[in-house]
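Hi X.,

You mentioned you wanted examples for the new student's onboarding notes, showing what a folding record looks like when two proteins sit in one file. Here is a clean example. The first protein comes first, with its sequence line followed by its structure tokens.
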Amino acid sequence: VFLYPNPALDRVFIQSKEEVDIVIYDVSGRLVASQKSISSNGIDVSNLSKGIYVAQIISEEKTTSVRLVIK
């Protein structure tokens, strides 16, 4: 599973062999975005303020946490 671009401006994409869900938290642990069944269009993050976030990428087999930087 690979999240790109990172740092991001307005949209992030996930490269994965299977369908995944994404959940994004700010540094205080507050849920700020989520999307199920990520498609090739990725997820819009243009409404997020500049800063550091934690993106959890959830598949049937595992959950991966990735540091996400928004420019």
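Then the second protein repeats the pattern, sequence line and then tokens:
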Amino acid sequence: LSLHNALPIYRMEEILAGLPKIDCGSCGAPNCRAFASDVVRGRSELSECVVFMREELKKLHNGLKPDGEQE
């Protein structure tokens, strides 16, 4: 396994670690591993994972004061 081939695999595992791993298919991929592979290949964007984006929005919301300013 060359370094050139290992980098996409490492990136895919890194992306997969941040996904919910519930294999809901809402992104259009059959499972989270296939979705992570699609992201690495440039066929999909992380924002296409509804569950991931929901969690990101929660983090953003929790970091804002009621008037919309950062804490």
